[in-house]
Amino acid sequence: MASSLSKEQQAYMLAHEDDSLVIDIIVCCSVCGFASIIFLFLRLYSQRLVSGKLHLTQSDILLIIAWACIPDSFISCFASSTRYGGGRHILFVSDLRMVQILNIADEHTYAYAMAFVKLSILRLYGGIFASRQFNYCLWVVAAIMIAWAISCGFTAVFQCRPISHTWDPRVEEDFCINYGISLLVSGVINIATDFTILAIPIPMILGLQISRQKKWLLIFTFAMGGSACIISIIRLAFTIKVGSTTDESWDDIPAGLLSIVELMFGFLAASIPTYRPLYRRIVHGSVTPSPIPNTPPHRLDNGLGKEAINKAGRSCESDSGLIGDLSTEHLSEDNFLGTRMTDQIELV
After folding, report:
1. What is the DSSP string of 27-65?
2. Report field, pTM of the whole predicted structure over 0.85
């Protein structure tokens, strides 16, 4: 790789021999990895407060699978690359082959972890809103996310032919795709799904027969995922350099760091709607919401019928502890606008 550097580039790197992003990588991996564990733990603990025992929902399992990808991405891949020169200029990389292999593995685990985080959020939505049309939309977005993750992993491995040229430039290449363009397209799709997941529950929330203040509180809660959207956009700007630089062990690091931060905010977005019981325990000292006296029942089942309502109630068992006290302990036959609700919605 050093042979492809111009004399000016080599002179610049020699003059900046002490430049290092190793500390930044280690700190970012440690902080974001620990924060992701905390977000997941608080989610599980909050749901345990509702049922008195740990009951994993499908959304929980998907998020746990996403978390299982993180040690590979944070430790085995990204952070471990610093041992071979990752985070320094390419001229000082001791083992370029290992750095490249770890980068490919990192791109794999990032794509799969992000996909499982978003699938967890979609399943969380599916446990709250019973509208058939809404759930069709969720399935479409889920299919896009699965295809996106598979394509990202496939492209990372098969970007060159033969494959070994990806990590060993001495192997003569037959064909290589423009990997920078591939990452750019992947980033745009990732951002598009971010905003789709952010916006998709808003029409359902606006249709609820609750006060405007509570509607906006619900929207704000789900909109916390917007923080991940912002990180995705910033990351896309740095992704443009990836695949088009001769100093990849240095220039690719900002995009990698932002990928880790994006995953951390994804865990927060997937978990914060489930924190309501924990909030009540801390602020009010009790998980049980205060009773609302003389509250007339709300009934607008949107033509679903009693059988559909009962089915919605049974499926809601897997998503207890959500914002708005969406638990079967307080479930009534209220199912307005195709939304699984309870007879007590306490948000403030």
Report:
1. HHHHHHHHHHHHHHHHHHHHHHHHHSS----HHHHHHHH
2. no
